[in-house]
Design a protein that fits this description.
With 155 residues, this protein is an all-beta fold. The protein is built from 1 helix and 13 strands.
Length: 155
């Protein structure tokens, strides 16, 4: 495939989260760079956060590694150990199975961007640290449950 022309990739907006969580992702979009390049073994996405937006609910992955590098602007990494300001060139890694929930928030007054590279497992479970929500993804299909295993139904 070679060079990927980012200007030809339609940004993805919205969220697969059920409400009331989906609407909390307003101001977040992504460019699926790996998909545009035909990659199948790992994902590579450029996440774009408008001022005040967050990347996701705070979460951790059971089976997938995740690597992040800020490319533009400033983000705040929120994880179990606290909050850390990250600027262009700063990196973070989240190994599979590490229960350190994390997400990024743009608390600045300008757009922020970061690259996320992660494993693509056929079966994945992500747990959301601050809310009663778990997602199980099998072959690209998501099923949301409560932490006790009951199916999640939006209020």
């Amino acid at each position: 495939m070679g060079i990927i022309d980012q200007s030809r990739i339609a940004p993805r907006t919205g969220s697969i989260y059920p409400e009331p969580y989906a609407s909390q992702m307003n101001g977040r979009s992504s460019l699926r760079l790996g998909d545009a390049g035909g990659l199948t073994q790992f994902g590579a996405n450029l996440i774009i956060l408008e001022p005040g937006a967050k990347s996701s609910l705070r979460h951790w992955h059971k089976n997938e590694d995740e690597f992040v590098m800020v490319t533009e602007g400033e983000c705040v990494l929120v994880q179990d150990e606290g909050e850390f300001v990250m600027r262009p060139g700063d990196c973070a890694a989240f190994p599979a199975g590490d229960r350190n929930g994390h997400h990024f928030i743009n608390r600045s007054d300008r757009e922020a961007r970061f690259l996320v590279v992660g494993t693509r497992s056929k079966h994945e479970i992500a747990t959301y640290s601050d809310v009663d929500l778990v997602v199980e993804i099998t072959d690209g299909r998501a099923r949301f449950t409560h932490k006790d295993g009951r199916d999640y139904e939006a209020p």
